[in-house]
Amino acid sequence: MAGYINNGKPRVALRLFETMPKDQVLPNSFTFTTVINACSFLADVETGRKIHAHVEILGLKSDLVICTSLIDMYGKCNDVVEAWKVFDTMVYRNVVSWTSMIVVYVQNALGEQALLLFREFILFMSPNHFMLASVISACASLGRLVTGKVTHGAVIRRGYDGNDVVASSLVDMYAKCGCITYSGKVFRLIESPCVIQYTSMIVGAAKYGQGNLSLDLFQEMIERGIRPNDVTFVGVLHACSHSGLVDIGLEHLNSMYTKHGIVPGAKHYICAVDMLGRLGRLDEAYQLAQTISAEAKEVALLWGSLLSASRSHGRLDLTVEAGKRLLELKQQLAGTYITMSNTYATMGKWEDAHRIRSEMINHGIQKEPGCSWVEIKDLTYAFYAGGLSSCTRRTEILNVLRELELRMKERGYVSGSKGSVFVDVEEEAEEAIVGLHSEKLALGFSLISMPRGTTIRIMKNLRMCWNCHEAFKLISNIVQRDIVVRDLNRFHHFKDGLCTCKDFW
């Protein structure tokens, strides 16, 4: 069974397991561990449950190795509850079983739970490099730079800074927390970086608006004889897309198979559509979009990209077309309804705008609320669009934002002047809505809570709007602070009235 699994044939291993009773061979703990690993490989939770039942019947539920394998299997099948039940009922746990449960949380986007479990663990035992790498990955997913730095310190104290697995996690963590310089420093300390580490740096630089750095890293990688994979090319195309390097990006797309033997997939063509759309080459983007066959989620990404680009460049016909496609797919519904409604309003087609809004309400579809969060010391503070009702420093934050608004208006800033149409909202109400976007609330709180000169880092769950982007540029100059915002798509680093994205996002 182990041989079949190692050769990528886990289903054959499971069939072999089923024949054991016929030959009157009883499975032992090693057998169960092996066959559970086959279920993990296949993400086959139903077969995994049956094997788990066998383990219980044969009285092996206290076996450390079997339980650890079960945790891993349930985690890979996205059944966090069952993984926790196994972990919680274990008589004895070691660093491997604790690490497995932390990995389950990280893999299932439950970074906070992973960090809480890690804090509990270090009260009793010392972590190994696998656990530290998993904790660093949790910090990356949450954008928790302070906690990531503390964990990096633990890595250095325990002598794991030379470990490639840990180094890869650190490169990724710093990149996802908006510290591309730190990523580069860790990356350059790796003696023989592999394709994974190069890809992490390429993607990180791309999201930070440093497309040329991504391309330089890609070229360096090729010159060192490291073969890129399909994910590497997603990073390269992403870099070209976010830096306006569309022709260079198309050259790399065409070279994937001819130079590197990699057949471009749907993700690569989606990047190409995004590249063309961002630069305003919408007819080419539309023609390419119609030729791509992919799964529903990937098709939704494709038309969602075209929807955003068409809206930004004023191609209302394509905005409506892309919106209709997304509604047919029943994907990205809230954002699509709102964009289409606003597009019809821009065209003066108020009946259509109201019809779209009514459909949205009738289907019970609600827009995900904008949320931004900042990490100060070891605490995270979250803010939601439109309100500060539960914040004890509400008055201070609003006073800071009002003062900044006045100083921005002195420099010619007009709130809500581009790209935002709020149906049935008066001008002054619209301005209030934009003024209370979650990233502005997070910024106001950071300005009154953090020492002067400290870089402010804000994470946001949605795409940053044009109005806030213009405001943050001005504010960075007014308060003379670096402000880094990670939104849904990329990083924006505001400094001295400018942004690293060069207003191209």
UniProtKB/TrEMBL annotation:
<feature type="domain" description="DYW">
    <location>
        <begin position="419"/>
        <end position="505"/>
    </location>
</feature>
<feature type="repeat" description="PPR">
    <location>
        <begin position="333"/>
        <end position="367"/>
    </location>
</feature>
<dbReference type="Pfam" id="PF14432">
    <property type="entry name" value="DYW_deaminase"/>
</dbReference>
<protein>
    <submittedName>
        <fullName>Pentatricopeptide repeat-containing protein</fullName>
    </submittedName>
</protein>
<keyword id="KW-0677">Repeat</keyword>
<feature type="repeat" description="PPR">
    <location>
        <begin position="63"/>
        <end position="97"/>
    </location>
</feature>
<dbReference type="Pfam" id="PF01535">
    <property type="entry name" value="PPR"/>
</dbReference>
<dbReference type="Pfam" id="PF13041">
    <property type="entry name" value="PPR_2"/>
</dbReference>
<dbReference type="InterPro" id="IPR046960">
    <property type="entry name" value="PPR_At4g14850-like_plant"/>
</dbReference>
<dbReference type="GO" id="GO:0009451">
    <property type="term" value="P:RNA modification"/>
</dbReference>
<dbReference type="GO" id="GO:0003723">
    <property type="term" value="F:RNA binding"/>
</dbReference>
<dbReference type="InterPro" id="IPR011990">
    <property type="entry name" value="TPR-like_helical_dom_sf"/>
</dbReference>
<dbReference type="InterPro" id="IPR032867">
    <property type="entry name" value="DYW_dom"/>
</dbReference>
<dbReference type="InterPro" id="IPR046848">
    <property type="entry name" value="E_motif"/>
</dbReference>
<feature type="repeat" description="PPR">
    <location>
        <begin position="194"/>
        <end position="228"/>
    </location>
</feature>
<dbReference type="Pfam" id="PF20431">
    <property type="entry name" value="E_motif"/>
</dbReference>
<dbReference type="InterPro" id="IPR002885">
    <property type="entry name" value="PPR_rpt"/>
</dbReference>
<dbReference type="GO" id="GO:0008270">
    <property type="term" value="F:zinc ion binding"/>
</dbReference>
